[in-house]
Amino acid sequence: MSNQNRKNMEFIHYCNTKLSNINEYNIIKVIIDNIDHISSLSLEKIADEAHISTSSVSRLISKIGFDSFQNFKYRLENENLNLKMRRMLTNTQRFIRSSDEDIVESLYVDAVANLQQTRLNLDIHKLREIINVLKESNSVTFIGDSHELADFYTLQLDLLANGIPAFLIEDKDINLVHINSLNEKDTIVYINLYSEWFGKYQKEIIAQAKKNHVNIIIFSQDDLNIEDVIIYHYGIKNTLNDGYFSLPYLNKVLCEFLYKE
């Protein structure tokens, strides 16, 4: 993921999970309400509509991770335009002449196909190996985006119930302090949906974990050129979001294997 995309994801993540008071909510609401014409939005307008000082707006922008208000506006505007174009292109190419019923059926077929491929290639021996690694670990850290991590939430709870400390940490929130606290008795489970989302930052995390001899398990739809880790492939290669249908299934299998000797 590029630095620009990461910064914009940090903004969305902050909006969703980290607003700490009514002033922050009011500032963010004004920004979101004006997102279609963010380039013309001024600090003064935000401050006026949010009933707060311009310095408070600037502090929040800095707190989210942007070095200036102008940079924040530029990145948000460009990423929103890029996202809109990508989504429109994808949907126009595929469904421009499709009826509502055809769209619904096509998406259903995609979901079933991904799940069926995961079942067809299910490697029970490797899943058992993964469970054995998890059960022998002093701690387990699941890393991925919020959607991917949500699919493995039950496994986290089952590990905790069995006395194994387990954490769910979004990859954009993970830092090397946490990685450097781990050793050969700990395990990282990296959940990846699409190879292009496994960028430089993610590779740095894996590289640092390998230096510390941490056990590394990666669930991925695509091929990842990473040595000395356990990689479990699922779903259909090069599909973007269909893997989200397979991940809950794998989570359920692992949860049951955890309790079955």
Structure description:
The protein is an alpha/beta fold and about 260 residues long. The chain folds into two domains: about 5-90, no CATH class; about 120-260, Rossmann fold, CATH 3.40.50.10490. It is built from twelve helices and five strands. The protein has helices at about 5-15, 20-35, 45-50, 55-65, 70-95, 100-120, 125-135, 145-150, 155-160, 175-180, 200-210, 245-260, and strands at about 140-145, 165-170, 185-190, 215-220, 230-235. The chain has a five-stranded parallel beta sheet, sandwiched between helices. Strand 3 (about 185-190), helix 11 (about 200-210) and strand 4 (about 215-220) form a beta-alpha-beta unit. Helix 2 (about 20-35) crosses helix 3 (about 45-50), helix 3 crosses helix 4 (about 55-65) and helix 9 (about 155-160) runs parallel beside helix 12. The longest helix has 27 residues, at about 70-95. The protein is globular and about 65 Å long. The protein starts with a helix and ends with a helix.
Strand-helix topology:
Elements: H1 3-17, H2 22-33, H3 43-50, H4 54-64, H5 69-95, H6 100-120, H7 124-135, E1 139-144, H8 146-151, H9 153-161, E2 166-170, H10 176-180, E3 186-192, H11 200-211, E4 215-220, E5 230-233, H12 247-259
Parallel strand pairs: 1-2, 1-3, 3-4, 4-5
Helix pairs in contact: 2-3, 3-4, 7-12, 9-12
